[in-house]
Write a structure and sequence with these properties.
By secondary structure, this protein is α+β, with helices and mostly antiparallel strands. 30% of the residues lie in helices and 28% in strands. The protein has eleven helices and 15 strands. The strands form two sheets. It has a nine-stranded antiparallel sheet. Strands 2, 3, 4, 9, 13 and 14 form a six-stranded antiparallel sheet that branches. Strand 13 (273-275) and strand 14 (278-283) form a beta hairpin. Helix 1 packs across helix 3 (31-41). The longest helix is centred in the first third of the chain and has 15 residues, at 69-83. It is globular.
Length: 328
């Protein structure tokens, strides 16, 4: 059990002021009393063999602001004596790693990944890597974290800008007769620091050497820039929003910088760069009070003639991608 019997008995004995004073000699509004009452209220979660329920309890307990730091340390140390040092350390790691995302928003307990790799997706046709350049300089993520539903968060925190990348499975809304084997999305957000600007930047989704596709071709649609790759076994689509959609978002104030100006159809249709290597999204000047957001989607399935499932799967909005991890 997560809590032993004497803690449970303590919670029961504190039902009245008189018993409370006899048991602890502390006032009802004391910090310690607040902790025990919280245990009492959450006892249904604590007395569970379910590890997730126990984690949920600790997450809630550590968020109660009136608990002093000293008390939390004492409580966790006593917990360690009861459940064992190894389990205690794992609980602390998992419950105390609540990191703050600067550009995305959502309730996440972020578990730091030990092996920091270039953001990528492994597909049956090879590996697709995601990258960012700012003022013609290539930047690597400084840290990466595992998200609760299997996705990852990458942080690029540098002297002149902050950038975050979420890579996860989106929530797809395809018709019942349409299915894909896998679909992954990647959402970038970037913001210059105060009193600075990003003159130019670009976001890329590109194939790593060693891919196995044998044929490719442009496969765009309304508001969609996409490339199709295939071999005899699999078909894969890589897609993003086209110049028309980026301009529509710019006009709506939807995280596209005001400096973007694509007037003619030629400019709009030629803005996104797609090829056998992948897709590249260039971006114009980003001011210090602006956040820029772009995304990529990758979907694959067995190579079935006339099947449009993967093409439709990469025609999604960023919020549909982020719903996969309950992030805004």
């Amino acid at each position: 059990m997560f809590l032993n019997s004497h803690v449970f008995e303590l919670a029961k004995k504190l039902n009245t002021e008189e018993n409370h004073k006899q048991w602890t000699g502390l006032r009802r509004n004391s910090v310690f009393y607040g902790l025990v009452c919280y245990i009492n209220n959450s006892i249904s979660l604590c007395l569970s063999d379910n590890y997730t329920s126990s984690i949920l309890f600790l997450r809630r307990a550590t968020s109660v602001q009136k608990f002093s730091k000293k008390l939390r340390i004492t409580y966790y140390r006593s917990l360690g004596q009861r459940v064992g040092v190894h389990a205690y350390r794992n609980v602390i790691r998992k419950t105390m790693r609540r990191k703050i995302m600067k550009l995305f928003h959502g309730e996440q307990v972020l578990i730091k990944e030990n092996n920091l790799l270039q953001p990528q997706i492994h597909t049956p046709l090879g590996i697709i890597e995601f990258s960012i350049t700012v003022s013609d300089n290539f930047y690597y993520p400084e840290k990466s974290y595992k998200l609760k539903n299997g996705g990852s968060l990458y942080k690029y925190y540098y002297d002149s800008f902050d950038c975050e990348l979420v890579v996860c499975r989106p929530k797809l809304n395809l018709a019942l007769h349409l299915t894909v084997e896998e679909c992954w999305g990647a959402v970038f957000r970037i913001k210059p620091h105060a009193n600075t600007q990003i003159s130019t930047c670009s976001f890329s989704a590109s194939w790593k050497e060693g891919y196995s596709w044998t044929d490719y071709g442009s496969n765009t649609g309304e508001d969609l820039e996409a490339v199709e790759y295939e071999n005899q076994i699999y078909r894969l689509h890589l897609g993003t929003q086209d110049g028309d959609m980026l301009m529509a978002r710019r006009n709506q104030g939807d995280m596209i910088p005001k400096s973007l100006c694509l007037n003619s159809d030629f400019e709009k249709h030629g803005f996104i760069l797609s090829s056998d290597k992948g897709i590249k999204i260039p971006m114009t000047l980003i001011d210090s009070n602006e956040i820029c957001q772009v995304h990529f989607l990758v979907a694959w399935n067995k190579n079935i003639k006339e099947d449009v499932s993967t093409w439709l799967a990469v025609d999604q909005f960023s919020n549909e991608i982020l719903k996969g991890e309950e992030i805004l």
